[in-house]
Amino acid sequence: MDVADLKVFEAVARHGSMNRAALELHTVQSNVTARIRSLEREVGVALFQRHVRGVSMTPAGQRMLPYAARIAKLVADARLAAQDEGPPKGVLTLGTLETTAALRLSPILSTFARRYPSVRLSLTTGTSCSLTTDVAGCRLDGAFVAGPVDHPDLHGETIFHEELVLVTPRTMASLDALTDVPDLKIIVFRLGCSYRQRLEALLAEMGALATTPLEFGSIDAIIACVAAGIGITLLPRGVVAKAAEQDQVTLHPIAPEAAHVDTLFIRRHDSYVSSAMQAFIDVARSEFDSLMVVAA
Q1: What is the CA radius of gyration of the chain?
Q2: How many CB atoms neighbour CB 15 within 10 A?
């Protein structure tokens, strides 16, 4: 079974399309189709059902998918382990929450780049749900996500502690007014964001009814919408502190059990911890320790 075929299989399964998989893999659709057909002949069963909108996995394909990603990752780890000598080098593909990127990552990234110039760091943003799925699926080497994370294949280590606050327009001086807002809107990241889930649970406890969420892809857009009086959100205090100081929004503390959230760095239990990965983890730990000293 060819590892390249397994990579093609995983990409097609993820996109549900031969064409989109070909674009990701920088090849042509006919090559993707040929590799899938070859793989299906080898295993002796159909892995995809073809339809006008693309493809969907058969039960056999669904059973095979977890192994395909792990085999490809295992082969890549074996090669990496053999070549991992001398100073850290190579590619490190990581993910992060948008809020963590804005609030915490700058000193880590600058320190890491200065100490390890031979490592090519690739960083993508997403929700806790999407990032966890990508790490478990071997598409990311590691990621910063909001805890807790309960996944049998993943190892998580607390890197930062955050305090969440409810963010409202500056005209809303008290949370008591929330239950009187007839068309309360929440301004959030897309589905899968843990802060969004916490906000929805918090409002339900308060008896406040929110309408369909307004989804945005950046922190600046979310804060601007709240400042404009469109709705409310839930974010780490550090992310919105400047906007509050400028009297653009009002910050409301919430109960400690709801406000406290750990930012974890997650990776697969069974993945090879390269010298580049270990170096990045060490820099992140060092930054966390320095924050704790300052806070004390």
Answers
A1: 22
A2: 16
- CATH for the stretch 87-161+261-295: 3.40.190.10
Q: Which two tokens stand for residue 61?
A: 């394909």
Q: Domain 162-260 belongs to what topology?
A: D-Maltodextrin-Binding Protein; domain 2 (3.40.190)
Q: What is the pLDDT of residue 60?
A: 95
Between β-strands 187-188 and 249-253, what pairing exists: parallel, antiparallel or unpaired? unpaired
Which residues does the chain have with pLDDT short of 50? Answer: 292-296
Structure tokens at 288: 């966390």
Largest separation between any pair of C-alpha atoms in the chain: 67
Asked if residues 243 and 249 have their Cβ atoms less than 8 Å apart, the reply is yes
CATH of range 3-82; options 1.10.3470.10, 1.10.1060.10, 3.10.580.10, 1.10.10.10: 1.10.10.10
pTM of the model: 0.79
- Write down the pLDDT at residue 292: 46
131, 95 contact by CB (below 8 A): yes
DSSP per residue over the chain, as a string? Answer: --HHHHHHHHHHHHHT-HHHHHHHHTS-HHHHHHHHHHHHHHHTS--EEEETTEEEE-HHHHHHHHHHHHHHHHHHHHHHHHH--SS--EEEEEEE-HHHHHHTHHHHHHHHHHH-TTEEEEEEE--HHHHHHHHHTTSSSEEEEESP---TTEEEEEEEEEEEEEEEETT---GGGGGG-TTB-BEE-STT-HHHHHHHHHHHHHTPPB-SPEE-S-HHHHHHHHHTTS-BEEEEHHHHHHHHHTTSEEEEE--HHHHEEEEEEEEETTS---HHHHHHHHHHHHHHHHHHHHH-
